[in-house]
Structures are given as structure tokens and as C-alpha cells.
């Protein structure tokens, strides 16, 4: 019973993860150019199961000169824990027991697909201002 909220949310979490994988998109007609980031951290929260919060991030990159969308993707950044939870290391945060604790799709999957799209479309990225 203590993990019932996660058990109920689990099928919905799998659906969200599949939607995130399917949401990866790039415009194959875009060839060459410099990408700038746009709505990179637009996020939303969705309740699944009884009271599990899924934090969903929508990201997109557009061509700098034309503002034309080139690459878009979404990922589920995290799932909150249910009633019964485990501490996440030495912090006061907690992680779910049954749901993916690192979100989905895997960040390596996103990075690999993003890099493939960049190479296929012959695109380069504008440096992010927050990383300079």
C-alpha cells in the first residue's frame, strides 16, 4: 500500500517517456546555419497517478538568421516521489522507488540524437550566454 501512488502512476510515466522520445523532431529541409536557443527551459508540471508530479521540459533551437525552428525535443526531467520514498543521498531531497529517478528519455539519448541532427543538417550552435 505505501507505494500504491507510484504503482498507479507507473503506466502513465511510461506513456510520458514514450511521448518524450517521439517528440524529438528536426526539420530535414534545414541545411547549414547557426542555431540559437529558444524556449530552452520552458517547463510544465503534470500530475500522474494520484499525486506524482512529472516535470516536463520543452526545448527548441532555431536558425539564428531566420528564426526558423530546426530542432525540438521534450524530456521528463523528474518524477516526484510518492508517499513512501527514499532519501537521495545525504540531502533532504527524496527520489521515487518505482519511477525513473533520472527522468526520461536518458540524457545520453537526447544528446546523441541532437548531435546526429546537427551533423545531418550541417548546423553549428551559438554559444549560450549563461555559459560564458
Outline of the structure:
By secondary structure, this protein is α+β, with helices and mostly antiparallel strands. The chain has 2 helices and 7 strands. The strands form 2 sheets. A 5-stranded mixed sheet has the order 1-4-3-2-7. Strands 5-6 form a two-stranded antiparallel sheet.
Write the layout of secondary structure elements.
Layout: H1 4-22, E1 25-26, E2 33-48, E3 52-63, E4 69-79, E5 86-87, E6 94-95, H2 107-121, E7 123-125
Parallel strand pairs: 2-7
Antiparallel strand pairs: 1-4, 2-3, 3-4, 5-6
Which properties best describe this structure?
elongated, 132 residues, 7 strands, alpha+beta, 2 helices
Could you walk me through the main structural features you see in this protein, from its secondary elements to its overall organization?
With 132 residues, the protein is an alpha+beta fold. It has one domain (4-126). Helices cover 26% and strands 36% of the residues. Strands 1-4-3-2-7 form a 5-stranded mixed beta sheet. It has a two-stranded antiparallel ribbon with strand order 5-6. Strand 5 (86-87) and strand 6 form a beta hairpin. The longest helix has 19 residues, at 4-22. The mean pLDDT is 85.
The sequence of SSEs as H and E is HEEEEEEHE
How many DSSP-defined strands?
7
The averaged pLDDT comes out at: 85
Low-confidence stretches: none
Amino acid at each position: 500500500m505505501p507505494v500504491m501512488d507510484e504503482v498507479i502512476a507507473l503506466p502513465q510515466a511510461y506513456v510520458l517517456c514514450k511521448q518524450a522520445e517521439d517528440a524529438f523532431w528536426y526539420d530535414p529541409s534545414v541545411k547549414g546555419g547557426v542555431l540559437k536557443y529558444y524556449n530552452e527551459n520552458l517547463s510544465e508540471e503534470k500530475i500522474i497517478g494520484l499525486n506524482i508530479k512529472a516535470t516536463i521540459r520543452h526545448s527548441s533551437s532555431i536558425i539564428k538568421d531566420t528564426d526558423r525552428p530546426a530542432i525540438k525535443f521534450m524530456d521528463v526531467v523528474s518524477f516526484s516521489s510518492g508517499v513512501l520514498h527514499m532519501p537521495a543521498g545525504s540531502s533532504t531531497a527524496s527520489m521515487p522507488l518505482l519511477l525513473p529517478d533520472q527522468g526520461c528519455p536518458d540524457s545520453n539519448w537526447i544528446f546523441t540524437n541532437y548531435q546526429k541532427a546537427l551533423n545531418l543538417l550541417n548546423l553549428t550552435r551559438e554559444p549560450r550566454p549563461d555559459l560564458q
